[in-house]
Automatic annotation (TrEMBL), chain A:
Keywords attached to this entry: Cell membrane, Lipoprotein, Membrane, Palmitate, Signal
InterPro entries per the UniProt record, alphabetical: Bact_solute-bd_prot1, SBP
PROSITE patterns: PROKAR_LIPOPROTEIN
Organism per entry: Brevibacillus borstelensis AK1
SUPFAM superfamilies to which the protein is assigned, alphabetical: Periplasmic binding protein-like II
Protein name: ABC transporter substrate-binding protein
Signal peptide: 1-29
Automatic annotation (TrEMBL), chain B:
SUPFAM superfamilies named among the record's database cross-references: MetI-like
Lineage: Bacteria, Bacillati, Bacillota, Bacilli, Bacillales
Main subcellular location of this protein, as a coarse class: membrane
Subcellular location: Cell membrane
Stored PANTHER family: ABC TRANSPORTER PERMEASE PROTEIN (PTHR30193), INNER MEMBRANE ABC TRANSPORTER PERMEASE PROTEIN YCJO (PTHR30193:SF37)
Membrane-spanning parts: 33-59, 95-116, 128-145, 176-201, 222-244, 286-309
Family per record: Belongs to the binding-protein-dependent transport system permease family.
Keyword Transport attached: yes
Keywords per UniProt: Cell membrane, Membrane, Transmembrane, Transmembrane helix, Transport
Residues covered by the ABC transmembrane type-1 domain: 91-310
Protein name: Binding-protein-dependent transport systems inner membrane component
Xref: Gene3D superfamilies: MetI-like (1.10.3720.10)
TrEMBL record, chain C:
Principal localisation: membrane
PANTHER family: ABC TRANSPORTER PERMEASE PROTEIN MG189-RELATED, ABC TRANSPORTER PERMEASE PROTEIN MG189-RELATED-RELATED
Similarity annotation: Belongs to the binding-protein-dependent transport system permease family.
GO cellular component, one term: plasma membrane
GO biological process: transmembrane transport
InterPro entries reported in the protein's UniProt record: MetI-like, MetI-like_sf
Domain ABC transmembrane type-1 span(s) in chain numbering: 67-258
Species the sequence originates in: Brevibacillus borstelensis AK1
SUPFAM superfamilies: MetI-like
The protein's name in its UniProt record: ABC transporter permease
Listed transmembrane segments: 7-28, 71-92, 104-126, 138-157, 178-200, 239-258
Subcellular location(s) per record: Cell membrane
Keyword Transport appears in the UniProt entry: yes
Keyword Transmembrane helix: yes
Length: 451, 321, 272
């Protein structure tokens, strides 16, 4: 009898502990919620989401502190996470009714949120407070109806990186702003070397035993910013028309561009997907100094420097018709649809501070990750960088364009990759591949826009 | 009530069915104790499992992009699945992966556990060695796997070439990618199952082996006649767990097929696309959470049927005291 | 030493080497400089040996804080799993109660629903409970009986001879006392297994902490390591490997402690 009682005591203790745990924390969180802080009734509390690594987080917190000093009526609390998982977290938060009031969006994801109605149109606020000519990337988040879904936080733009040491070794002139794709291929042939030291012009060159490549151009999904996409654009082609709702892949321009790529891969002067496999990381051929050239974005400098490469940059070459294009990714601040008027205003103050404040712009630029949004500061920062021809990045802004990012960017990119795989690996003609890709991409677009 | 006939190795199961008439009456003392002891799980069930599974089942009948409320679409997601070639490819790949992985890993784990359950010098060291891949993250495992299966510099191709054979592209080869992934999964996972078997082996009474030795049984006979039947409860556990985990393989394939770099894993040409990869991508990358949930429930159904059959079959081959 | 014994040693030695030696590749990689890490063709041995990768990653990733968080989560999880899962499992293994077999199928069934599709509803529950941005969502379910633990311990309880329990019953023990005093001590090897695996799962978990934790100071170790990689920069691979290797040590310690329980049968079973 006694034993039985002790046991039921134990059980009820266990149960009440379980209930207590849940109840306690419920209360804790409530009192901890800054919204209920009554001591400063005027203060607006904002929840801001952003992805970060240790240095970017440190810098962001510093800037937030400075901002809050200037705006004592606004308190910004932050929610951060690693980039790799941030958007999964964000989706969960939005779905769970716990969305941040404003967040930092990956450039290619702005439309994914915007066209699903998760963020606000900032057109009026921008027109009121920011003069468009002073900033880069202001058109990047413009919807077909004139809406503007976000304000640039930092700019990435694609250029042609080249390895000076390999150019010197082959006795070649460095690429410049006047280069064409034919010159790229010509130089690549001379720089590609097989195991016995012969270059690709040599008749006895062995394309299966290449030890140094001329040019890395990606056929995989990363090629949307560093491979097939900018190439197609300079050839006069592209993926979507200006409405971003219609696929225009099945064109002679695109065919010409992709055939140019496939030819290079076949001859061994560009690494093909299997070659890239032996590098573990597709960026490694260039990083390890065994690829003469590669298209990459502004941020790529950082890793190349860490790897001790001797490199410089040139604009992405013009296409056969002289058309120019530089892929650009504009990470942006967006404001949640769920933010009320007061919070929207407060969030806008932060965005304004970010874009207009020279010091904030300089501070963020000191991380070396992105080109500052404010043109004046960008020029100042980039011209002070003498380690490479940094002006190339600014010059390329003139022909910068988006990656045809829309609400289904991730999905159409996958559809393209899937349809084009046989063509890139030479199992199917480029024409067939593009035809299939066009259908597949259109199907993805219709799945969203024709619903 | 349980006839214990240890020495002959015949064991009765404890799968006593609940007597029907008892259900109607007031709970007896044993029933009350049973309910009390499982009460933590009942809380778990009511507070968490019930809501999460009903919610995700409901979502599987809707169009749900996570940013807007779900819209009821009936069986649309399920009929989409039937027409989705990638779903079928993923299902095929998942089955292939599982059928290759589970039996080999289980058998190997049992042999290893028996081998490492002896009195050996340096036993601890051997056990640690076998456990190290288990605790290593997939990032580390991927590096190690690359040193073996790299098409250019890997040991595997060096070996093939030295034997005068053609080198292979391994993870970049549509035919080989799953076998290579299975090999790596065995290497990483065998220690996990070995530990389960080791724990199971501790329950096998030593006098059985002594008795068998007196009867003149050799090591192989002892293994088949004593170890295998006595450890069958653990084998059942291991089989179910490895089937579930191999059906839900995600991280390995994501990391090893360049998903971390490209954002698109499962290559080359979807040759290693598995169900979890497909549903994760559909759900969180393409905003089709309704469709992803439908795939998840089909996956659940397959596993459930498999496990249910195993539960039925176990009465034939699993021996409990 | 008999030939058979020599053969056994040889087989186990080779198998251990296959398991262990590739692991050295990771160790070597963690000691390389950025330049050497990127070298093509790859080199096996680090030259020069850069030990400071370890101290750098420790500083960079705020390891001491994250380790403490991970330890809190893992230790609370182990305690919860051992106490609750074994108790629930004992009822499933030995007691008769209505819907027992159905409930057990539900236990197994919950393991079969992919976690990614229940993340959102689970997030909503934890939000209602006010547990967002605390460590609680990471361990609290372990105290309410986890399917893996229940399954593992149920199989263990089914495997032990019934006589001892029958004897205790005759002595007047109630089922809880039988479970606590008689059955549980007999299943120490399985409890040790449960402890290792719970620790490992919690120590390595990434998704749940990413979803529930929003303050960097509350990150767990794997999230800390993961967050070394920014969108474009940071997260040099040798740091990631070094970080991963550091985070192995606690699991190894737990394994060494638990492994002691795997020697009882060593005398009697096996090849000899």
């Amino acid at each position: 009898m006694k034993r039985k009682r002790s046991f039921s005591l134990f059980l009820s203790a266990l149960l009440s502990a379980a209930l207590l745990i849940t109840a306690c924390t419920g209360q804790q969180a409530n009192t901890g919620d800054p919204q209920n802080a009554k001591n400063d009734s005027e203060q607006i509390v904002l929840k801001m989401g952003y992805y970060s690594d240790p240095p970017t987080q440190k810098k962001m917190e510093e800037l937030l502190a400075k901002f809050m000093e200037k705006h004592p009526n606004i308190k910004i609390t932050t929610e951060t996470g690693p980039h790799a998982q941030f958007f999964q977290k964000l989706n969960t938060q939005i779905a769970g009714g716990n969305a941040p009031d404003l967040w930092l969006s990956d450039g290619v994801k702005v439309f994914e949120f915007a066209e699903r109605g998760a963020v606000k149109d900032l057109r009026e606020l921008i027109e009121k407070d920011l003069s468009k000519e002073e900033y880069y990337g202001m058109d990047a988040n413009k919807g077909p109806g004139g809406e503007v879904w976000g304000v640039p936080q930092g700019i990435q733009i694609g250029v042609l990186y080249y390895n000076k040491a390999l150019f010197d070794k082959a006795g070649l002139k460095y690429p410049d702003a006047n280069w064409t794709w034919d010159q790229v291929k010509e130089a690549a042939e001379l720089m590609t070397i097989d195991a016995s030291g012969k270059n690709a012009k040599d008749p006895s060159f062995d394309p299966n035993k290449v030890s140094e490549y001329g040019f890395t151009i990606f056929s995989s999904p990363v090629g949307v910013s560093r491979g097939w996409f900018p190439l197609m654009k300079t050839f006069g082609g592209g993926v979507l028309d200006s409405s971003l709702q219609k696929a225009v892949l099945d064109t002679p321009e695109n065919k010409q561009a992709i055939e140019w790529m496939v030819d290079g891969m076949k001859r061994g002067i560009f690494p093909d997907p299997v070659d890239l496999q032996s590098f573990q990381d597709p960026f490694k051929p260039f990083l390890s100094g065994v690829s003469g050239m590669q298209i990459d974005i502004y941020a790529a400098r950082v890793k190349m420097r860490e790897a001790g490469l001797n490199f410089d940059v040139a604009p992405i070459p013009a296409g056969p018709g002289g058309k120019r294009f530089a892929p650009s990714i504009v990470n942006s601040w967006v404001i949640s649809k769920t933010a009320d008027e007061k919070k929207t205003q407060a969030a806008w103050e932060w965005i304004k501070y970010w874009a207009t404040d020279d010091e904030a712009q300089r501070e963020w630029a000191s991380l070396g990750e992105a080109i500052p949004v404010k043109k004046k500061v960008a020029e100042e920062v980039l011209t002070s960088d003498t380690s490479l021809n940094a002006k190339v990045f600014l010059d390329s802004m003139e022909f910068a364009g988006s990656l045809d990012a829309n609400a289904v960017f991730g999905e159409w990119r996958k559809a393209f990759d899937e349809s084009m795989f046989p063509a890139f690996s030479g199992e199917e003609s480029v024409e067939q591949g593009l035809k299939k890709a066009n259908e597949a991409v259109q199907k993805v677009l219709d799945g969203f826009y024709k619903k | 009530m349980n006839q214990n006939t240890q020495l002959t190795g015949e064991w009765k199961t404890d799968e006593r069915p609940v007597p029907k008439p008892r259900k109607r009456k007031r709970l007896d003392s044993e029933g009350r104790w049973g309910i009390l002891l499982i009460s933590p799980y009942l809380i778990h069930l009511i507070v968490f499992v019930a809501f999460t599974s009903i919610a995700s089942l409901y979502i599987s009948f809707t169009d749900y992009d996570m940013l807007n409320p779900p819209e009821w679409t009936g069986l649309a997601n399920y009929s989409k699945m039937i027409d989705d070639p990638l779903f079928w490819k993923a299902l095929k790949n998942t089955l292939y992966f599982t059928i290759l992985l589970v039996p080999i890993k289980t058998a190997l784990a049992l042999v290893l556990a028996v081998a490492l359950n002896q009195k050996l010098k340096g036993l601890k060291l051997y056990r640690i060695a076998h456990f190290i891949p288990v605790i290593s993250s997939w990032t580390v495992i991927a590096y190690v796997a690359d040193s073996i299966f790299n098409p250019r510099f890997g040991w595997a191709n060096s070996l093939l070439v030295s034997l005068g054979l053609e080198p292979k592209n391994w993870l970049a080869d549509e035919q080989l990618v799953i076998p290579v992934l299975v090999a790596v999964a065995i290497w990483k996972g065998v220690g996990y199952m070995m530990v389960l078997f080791l724990a199971g082996l501790q329950n096998v009474p030593g006098d059985l082996y002594e008795a068998a030795e007196i009867d003149g049984a050799g090591p192989l006979q002892k293994f088949w006649r004593i170890t295998v039947p006595l450890i069958s409860g653990t084998t059942f556990l291991v089989l179910i767990l490895s089937t579930i985990s191999s059906f839900q393989s995600f991280e390995q394939i994501y990391v090893m097929t360049a998903g971390a770099v490209d954002g698109v894993a499962g290559g080359p040409n979807n040759a290693s696309l598995v169900l979890m990869l497909h549903l994760y991508r559909e759900g969180f990358t393409f905003f089709h959470m309704g469709y992803a949930s439908a795939i998840a429930w089909v996956l659940f159904l397959i596993l459930f049927v498999f496990t249910f059959m195993q539960m039925r079959l176990q009465k034939r081959w699993v021996h409990y005291d | 030493m008999s030939i058979r014994k020599i053969l056994a040693y040889a087989a186990i030695g080779i198998s251990s080497a296959i398991m262990f030696i590739p692991f050295l590749t990771a160790l070597f990689n963690s000691l390389k400089t950025v330049g050497q890490f990127n070298k093509y063709p790859p080199e096996l041995f680090p030259d020069p040996i850069k030990w400071s990768n370890y101290s750098e990653v420790w500083e960079l990733a705020n390891f001491s804080t994250y380790t403490l968080n991970s330890l809190t989560v893992s230790v609370l999880s182990i305690l919860g799993a051992i106490l609750s899962s074994s108790m629930v499992a004992y009822a499933f293994a030995r007691l008769q109660f209505p819907f027992r077999d159905t409930l057990f199928m539900i236990v197994l069934g919950t393991m079969m629903i992919p976690g990614v599709v229940t993340i959102i509803p689970q997030f909503i529950i934890f939000k209602q409970l006010g547990m967002l941005d605390t460590l609680m969502p990471l361990w609290v379910l372990e105290w309410l009986g986890q399917p893996f633990g229940i399954f593992l311990m149920r199989q263990a309880f089914l495997g032990i001879p019934r006589e001892y329990e029958e004897a205790a019953k005759i002595d007047g023990c109630n089922p809880f006392q039988i479970y606590w005093r008689v059955a549980l001590p007999m299943c120490k090897p399985s409890l040790a297994t449960l402890a290792i695996f719970t620790f490992m799962a919690k120590w390595n978990e990434i998704l749940a902490p990413v979803i529930y934790i929003t303050t960097r100071e509350k990150y767990t170790l794997p999230v800390g390591i993961l967050s070394l990689k920014g969108q474009w920069t940071g997260g040099n691979d040798q740091y990631l490997v070094a970080g991963a290797l550091i985070s192995l040590i606690p699991i190894l310690i737990v394994f060494l402690i638990a492994e002691k329980y795997f020697v009882e049968g060593a005398r009697s079973s096996g090849l000899k």
